[in-house]
Amino acid sequence: MTSTVITIIGAGVVGLAVAAQLAGKYGDVYILEKNEGFGQETSSRNSETIHAGIYYREGSLKAETCVAGNALLYELCQQYGIPCRKTGKLVVATGDAEIGPLEALLEQGKKNGARDLAMLSSKEVKTLEPNVEAIAAILSPSSGVIDSYALMKFFLNRAKEQGAEIAYKSKVIGIERLTGGYRVMVENGSGTFTFNTETLINCGGLHSDRIAQLAGIDIDRAGYKLHYCKGEYFSVGGGKSGLVKRLIYPVPVPGAGGMGIHNVFDVEGRMRLGPNARYVDEIDYRVDESLRGAFYNSVKSFLPFIEHDDLEPEMAGIRPKLAGPGEGFRDFVIRHEQDKGFPGLINLIGIESPALTSAPAIAEYVEGLVKEML
């Protein structure tokens, strides 16, 4: 197989997973990251949830990579000691009007290949989670949480061990199409420099549409323009982290931009609530403290032990969504752009949830595209 120079833009969890997958196999691999370290944006500002693949359209990249990534992540965690907890998850209905959507969600998950899903009665919910109120629920045993920093560190170390190199504080400001590749202009602390690469993989996360535009793609025509959707989190105090063992989610509202505010654990078992979903024009990680009441009201029907004063603002993240407010399902964009006149350019755009879960499967998918190119 032909050796090539591969450049990956972005050192979030997906960019690092791709680097780990490709390094040592197809040529030199270089990673460019505009921040001072890896994973400082969406990859470190999320729920750290290992999803099962319940929510997404059958046959979509989101569904397929999530189901595959779920299994791959647990294998990696077991083999390499990456901290994770297979907590399991309940998606709960609290009123009769939610039973139909809950049953539809169960069927969607089964079609997607999500493992071990089961519908539970109110009594069965109480047996598993005495402090949760629900009239029915979906049980997802394979859902869990993972230490996202440890996962990214693992991917980076694996890539480096196979010869990959990473440059921080290196912002891509220009991309020029060449015969047989691309000239990339980079701005760093000491000025600007350019280099040539045969393969360019855009894992730019929140900025992936801008990177595609720099390469020459009309992002409006291609449908690549991103919408920023903010998700905030509140910590749960009062010693209440141990009152539930599992992730407890509401039945999602279509078009709401997220899965609904739910409880979240880190690998140590500390609990918080989030994320909400609201579209914003700028990247801003401040938490709006006035939302405490909205967070409390959103969970009190199924987590009645949580009180208003238990909640304190904690952190926020931004999702890079292809779907705007009220729009329908949009899948990941993961494609070689040869048909648009950009051979050697692979775009990953709209890589939001469940991207953390999907990362190792996305990396395998990208490797398949690279194999076809070489």
Describe this structure in words.
The protein has 374 residues and is α+β, with helices and mostly antiparallel strands. The protein has two domains: 4-44 and 149-225 and 329-373, 3-Layer(bba) Sandwich (FAD/NAD(P)-binding domain), CATH 3.50.50; 49-146 and 227-321, D-Amino Acid Oxidase, Chain A, domain 2 (2-Layer Sandwich), CATH 3.30.9.10. The protein has nine helices and 21 strands. It has helices at 13-22, 61-80, 99-112, 122-128, 148-161, 208-215, 219-222, 292-299, 355-373, and strands at residues 4-9, 27-32, 49-50, 84-85, 89-93, 118-121, 136-140, 144-146, 165-167, 171-178, 181-188, 191-197, 199-202, 227-236, 247-250, 262-265, 271-274, 278-280, 311-321, 333-336, 345-349. β11 (181-188) and β12 (191-197) form a beta hairpin.
Cα shape: elongated
Poorly predicted residue ranges: none
Structural class call reads: alpha+beta
How many helical stretches? 9
| CATH fold description of the largest domain | D-Amino Acid Oxidase, Chain A, domain 2
The appropriate CATH architecture of the largest domain is 2-Layer Sandwich
